[in-house]
Automatic annotation (TrEMBL):
This is Cysteine--tRNA ligase. PANTHER family: CYSTEINE--TRNA LIGASE, CYTOPLASMIC, CYSTEINYL-TRNA SYNTHETASE. Its EC number is 6.1.1.16. The lineage of its organism: Bacteria, Pseudomonadati, Pseudomonadota, Alphaproteobacteria, Sphingomonadales. CDD domains: CysRS_core. Signal peptide: none annotated. A motif ('KMSKS' region) lies at residues 270-274. It comes from Glacieibacterium frigidum. The gene is cysS. One of its GO terms (biological process) is cysteinyl-tRNA aminoacylation. Its cofactor is Zn(2+). Zn(2+) binds at C30, C212, H237, E241. Binds 1 zinc ion per subunit. Keywords: Aminoacyl-tRNA synthetase, ATP-binding, Cytoplasm, Ligase, Metal-binding, Nucleotide-binding, Protein biosynthesis, Zinc.
Length: 436
RNA sequence: GGUCCGAUGGCGGAGUGGUGACGUAACGGACUGCAAAUCCGUGCACCCGGGUUCGAUUCCCGGUCGGACCUCCA
């Protein structure tokens, strides 16, 4: 099998991936902050890293991959949303976590092995912050605990920035209790009416970055193989995670490979919650696009490239997928080995467009077993369609009409079914139907 | 202002120092009662200007345009 090569943000290059322990490959992806519905852009990392997980399992064995994706269930935006409705925060977080899991499930994203919730790991966060203070790289000030970026020489290495440049940018929050404007919050105080936990620094709540560091160490270990997320997380989120974890670990890095997916755009701008130009997943599904179409559309571009999301993209993707699924439907040959050509494409930094091209070729080669296996690997097999007695009866009536050359009746039945979104396909071996 | 990325056919989108993926759309044909599906065939591109080279879409430099990050954001 060809080497698996992955682009590492840390080194800005593709590198052959070698896990620390092939029997236990660890990956962590930053999951959602659950305070609103997920849009299709939020699904890109979930889908991309779901594919990576499948590729890793194929290579190292199903039991050899440990995948964690967190749920951020304490955050100021959540508090704001809860206040707006006058409900406790867990009403909000539970609701949107359920939505998130349903949306991802529709896109064929398998649940991760671990889905740690931030609120369940506050003790570990407090412990890690305590260690950082003890090591002299963090300091308490006015109820806050801050990470002292000057104490970590490699700060800025992941995002390729220099500290002085960041400070010169002057867009970081300048609070009087910070030693340096670039210092970031590990712990912040809560007002009595805000959610909070007791800590050595008073009642408060964790900063955003510390949760991933603490949960990764608890769930996966100190240095993991792969850490992923959207490219906007490189700075400050991942830079800060990397800094605090390395310091807490006595120097051992947080992750060996950092991977970041590019963004979806809508028209001229990136799709963004704050810009409001988003396509929500549940709305796309309600509009009739199947989860497989949405998934294939997300995989139609390389994960690091931008992808313009549009109805035209979905229309084209659906046509492609219909053709593939039709090809499989006409044969009951079971899945075989995933063709090497497909593995090679995916092994080249998850080149899904090339894998898609390879799969398209399989239908030309009449390789049903390979096609089924490849589509299964990418998570694109459609669920078993349920039967429908009424449609079957209509189809039977039309077959009878055609047999007696009553084409007016035959066409009337076909048009009626078409109006219900059911398309008929006649072949020498009989008539089949499918929904469009 | 700083850092980084991109520019390929009607559209989406890989890739490559020389024979120009793949999908979708278009056109022609086969098949079909007519369709649908399928199959066969055809046409269609590498931002601009230099440089390196026998040869550049691919490498280098410059430019133009577009985008991202530097602040919540996948």
């Amino acid at each position: 099998m060809t080497d698996l090569r992955l682009y590492n943000t840390l080194t800005r290059s593709k590198q052959v991936f070698v896990p620390a322990e092939p029997a236990r490959v660890t990956m962590y992806v930053c999951g959602p902050t659950v305070y609103g519905r997920a849009h299709i852009g939020n699904a890109r990392p979930a889908v991309v890293f779901d594919v990576l997980r499948r590729v890793l399992r194929h290579r190292y064995g199903a039991g050899a991959v440990v995948y964690a994706r967190n749920i951020t269930d304490i955050d100021d935006k959540i508090i704001t949303a809860a206040d707006a409705e006058g409900v406790p925060i867990d009403t909000i977080t539970q609701r949107f976590e359920d939505h998130y899991l349903a949306d991802m499930g529709a896109l064929g994203v398998e649940p991760p092995d671990h889905a740690p919730h931030a609120t369940a790991y506050v003790a570990q966060m407090v412990a890690m912050i305590d260690e950082l203070v003890a090591r002299g790289v963090a300091y308490a000030a006015e109820g806050h605990v801050l990470f002292d970026v000057a104490a970590f020489p490699d700060y800025g290495k992941l995002s390729g920035r220099r500290l002085d440049e960041m400070i010169a940018g002057a867009r970081v929050e300048v609070a009087p209790y910070k030693k340096s404007p670039a210092d970031f919050v590990l712990w912040k105080p809560s007002w009595p009416e805000q959610p909070g936990w007791d800590s050595p620094w008073g009642r408060g709540r964790p900063g955003w970055h510390i949760e991933c560091s603490a949960m990764i160490r608890e769930v996966l270990g100190e240095t993991i193989d792969i850490h992923g997320g959207g490219l906007d997380l490189i700075f400050p989120h991942h830079e800060n995670e990397a800094a605090q974890s390395a310091c807490a670990h006595g120097g051992a890095p947080l992750a060996r490979v950092w991977m970041h997916n590019g963004f979806l755009s809508m028209g001229a701008d990136k799709m963004s919650k704050s810009l409001g130009n988003v396509a929500l997943i549940d709305e796309l599904l309600a509009a009739g696009w199947s989860g497989e179409v949405l998934r294939l559309a997300l995989l139609s571009a390389h994960y690091r490239q931008p992808l313009e999301w549009s109805d035209a993209l979905l229309t084209q993707t659906k046509a492609t997928l219909d053709r593939w699924q039709g090809f499989l439907r006409r044969s009951d040959v079971a899945a075989g080995e995933v063709p090497e050509r497909v593995i090679a494409a995916l092994s080249d930094d998850l080149n899904t467009p090339d894998a898609v091209a390879a799969i398209a070729r399989l239908s030309r080669l009449d390789d049903v077993a390979g096609m089924r296996a490849a589509m299964g690997l990418l998570g694109l097999l459609e669920p078993e369609g349920e039967g429908d007695a009424a449609i079957d009866a209509a189809v039977a009536a039309r077959v009878a009409a055609r047999a007696r050359k009553d084409f007016a009746e035959s066409d009337r039945i076909r048009d009626g079914l078409a109006a219900q979104g059911v398309v008929l396909e006649d072949s020498p071996s009989g008539t089949t139907w499918r929904r469009v």
